[in-house]
Amino acid sequence: MSHMSRTQFSQFLETLPEFADFSPSELDTLERIMLVRNYPDGYEFIREGGSPHGVFLAIEGEIAVTHTRANGRGAVELNRMHPGELFGLAALIDHGHCSASCRASGNVRVAFLPRAAFKLLYSANSPLAGHFLRMVARQLMRDYRTLVQALCRNIFETSEAATSPELNAVLFRYTGPERRRGALAAHN
Amino acid sequence: MPISKEEFSKHFPSVMQHMSTADVAAFVQALTPMQLAKGETLIRDGESNDAIYFVKNGSLEASIEKNGKKSPLGRVVAGQWLGEVSMLDPGPATATVTAISDCELLRLTRVDFENLDQHRPMLMNVVLRALSKLLIERLRSSTDLLIQLTDDRRHSSKAVRERSTDAYAALVGTRR
């Protein structure tokens, strides 16, 4: 995996819709505070049950989102994160537990914004912090509307909404480990 | 008559947390008081909503309706607010909200919200963070309830409906 210069990272950010509102100087600041590194296959960015220390941005390669089966035999893959996707965004708002693990699938390159760096930006009233807060809000809204649609189907149509893949992805983003185990027992 | 910042802080302490005195003053100034008579509908499910409402006095009922079937979700009471989802994401409203008593509300329109965002972005960061935190909590409560559906579904469609309605109420932030 080749080295990525700061300019290349900035250019990469410019291509992402999530960063469309960022000014060139803000992207420059992000280059300086985000840690861009290569990670080997299997590297664990987020451990289920733990609290992530910041937000991650996939640059190259794939990240597998998995969780352990209730019976302890292996893991179920929920989702795959691709270049340009952010994960761990809620960590910027609170210290809730993660109910899924995020691991490198093959060699990957990932940028990391530590929660501590975000807090500094926030305390310094940086507009950058505002942009990140808006990103979090947008993700929350997407998840909110997914849940609303699924619940509406359950209330009025009694469909298979409770087990749809989209809904599962949302459920496991917000549900604590104890609840998750119960759900997995039912799924498996 | 506009509400004073002291009065607003008393009714809605969680919104005011982490705001400076100057920010509170600017925020309160952007709010418009309004009255809603018992039986009047404030927000209609599926229609666009362009404001967030802080309930100063009175109670409202949230419900959803489809194919002529209505499902009540619970009440929004004094000290709570509603409409924040449409404010953060200009999509259709996710519930119908009707006054079940005469209500006093404080309205912050999207235009006011955007003005504040433009002129006092740091204040809006505080508001945005508070709203996001609230939504994360609601999503967690709702998904906790929804997870239980995986078991309920084996029993009866009535149980599925009831549990889904509870989860929906948690999502909308009403009290059942």
Structural account:
The complex is a heterodimer of chains A (188) and B (176). Chain A has a single domain (6-138), classed as Jelly Rolls, CATH 2.60.120.10. Helix content of chain A is 42%, strand content 24%. Chain A is built from 6 helices and 6 strands, in the order ααββββββαααα. Chain A has helices spanning 6-14, 24-33, 115-123, 127-156, 165-174, 177-187, and strands spanning 35-39, 44-46, 54-68, 75-81, 86-87, 101-114. In chain A, a hairpin with a 6-residue loop joins β3 (54-68) and β4. In chain A, α1 (6-14) crosses α2 and α3 crosses α4. The N and C termini of chain A lie far apart (37 Å). With 176 residues, chain B is of the alpha+beta class. Chain B has a single domain (5-172), classed as Jelly Rolls (Sandwich), CATH 2.60.120. Chain B has helices at 5-11, 13-16, 21-29, 84-88, 110-119, 121-147, 149-152, 157-172; strands at 32-36, 41-43, 51-57, 59-66, 69-77, 81-82, 96-99, 103-109. In chain B, the strands form 2 sheets. Chain B has a 4-stranded antiparallel β-sheet with strand order 1-8-3-6. A 4-stranded antiparallel β-sheet of chain B has the order 2-7-4-5, covered by helices on one side. In chain B, β4 and β5 (69-77) form a beta hairpin. In chain B, α5 (110-119) packs across α6 (121-147) and α6 (121-147) runs antiparallel to α8. The mean pLDDT of chain B is 83. Chain A binds chain B through residues 90, 93-94, 96, 122, 125, 127, 129-130, 133-134, 136-138, 140-141, 143-145, 147-148, 150-152, 154-156, 158, 162-163, 167, 170-171, 173-176, 179-180, 182-183, 186-187, and chain B through 64, 66-67, 69, 71, 85, 88-89, 91, 94, 121-122, 124-125, 128-129, 131-133, 135-136, 139-140, 142-144, 146-151, 153, 157, 160-161, 163-165, 167-168, 171.
